[in-house]
Amino acid sequence: MSADYQPKPEHKFTFGLWTVGSSGADQFATTFPVRGPKTPAELVRLLGEVGAYGVNFHDNDLIPLDATPAEAEQIKKDFRAALKETGLVVPMATTNLFSAQIFKDGAFTSNDPKVRAYSIQKAMRGMDLGAEFGAKIYVFWGGREGTETDATKNPLDGLKRFREALNFLCEYNNSQGYGYKFALEAKPNEPRGDIYLPTTGSMLAFIETLDHPEMVGVNPEFAHEHMAGLNFMHAVAQAWDAGKLFHIDLNDQNYARFDQDWRFGQQNWKQAFFLVKFLEDVGYTGSRHFDAHAFRTEDYEGVKDFARGCMRTYLIFKEKARQFNEDKEIQALLAEITPASGEMEKFEGKFTAEKAAALKAFSFDRNAIAARGLKYEKLDQLLTDLMMGIR
Ligand code: GCO
Ligand code: MN
Ligand code: MN
């Protein structure tokens, strides 16, 4: 099979308006934009040109916070026309609950009841807007839900407030018949000193405490798990195992650094490869959403290079995963590494009293078992050769 690495709609590659629309301003005191603004309709055309499938937005990526109703209508009209022209769809929408000053101490978890109520109002309006464009996934990233000092807030109050807000919004979803699935996105820190529910694993446990757990899943992000020093693919696998992988944010990020939001596969090839292989092997059918930014050295041609690069790298790893799965030597090694149950079969599976008694009485040759070399070095080098293109 020859791979052309061209993005197609069935690959479900999506970008946020905020990603290709990023001005390149960074988070330091010297911050300044390096790219002029583009309208949402212009960004849709840019994404159409590079071959994306869909575009996602925060309420205020589309409609600025202080837009008049007439301005909002015009923006929506232009955006809708660009979608029609390019064939792009809007699979996901979300609320900006972090940029405006009112969110300086959080949104749903703020200590101020007015801020909490305003946040729920804004999320309902954001859901209305997303539904107008056909979004079926609604993301909640609690960017400012946290603290710099725990003198200010009890984390139990934070959890209670976050839960109440989501329960309210699940009921709103039902009352409007929107049919959204909610996807909770964890991040350990930045912009807060500590953000509540810092990892995908924390979110998965929290979801089970909601009134409508079936409506709520996760949106794991590569960079966020790496910021926490974790293995992203393992977090994604746990979400998948729980039936909760509703969305995914792909980018790249070195460990132990500030939030970098790099082009997918820019740095950590191996982690990116294992992630793509996982998604393709299990048959994940959701969006492959790139939540990343072009380097601030780029003009808009560079932004297109960035967007094309995210998709191309994904497709290269997809092809490498196929090669890995079909490579005879690799597969033979894998078979050797994972022997059939053999005489252990009688001990496997569900507990019975007889099985437990037989297992307790069985005599293992511990040293002989431990002496077996597992050939993981060989396997991993075969993978390296394959990824480097010499296999
Ligand atoms: C970040 C987050 C955001 C969210 C976005 C959608 O680190 O800033 O990843 O980009 O994904 O707000 O919820
Ligand atoms: Mn992020
Ligand atoms: Mn994200």
From TrEMBL:
Write out the GO MF terms.
magnesium ion binding; xylose isomerase activity
Which GO terms fall under biological process for this protein? D-xylose metabolic process
- Write down the required cofactor(s): Mg(2+)
Catalytic reaction(s) noted? alpha-D-xylose = alpha-D-xylulofuranose
Q: What is its EC number?
A: 5.3.1.5
Q: How does it assemble?
A: Homotetramer.
Query: Could you tell me what this protein is called?
Result: Xylose isomerase
From what organism does this protein derive? Leptolinea tardivitalis
From the UniProt record, report the name of the gene that encodes this protein: xylA
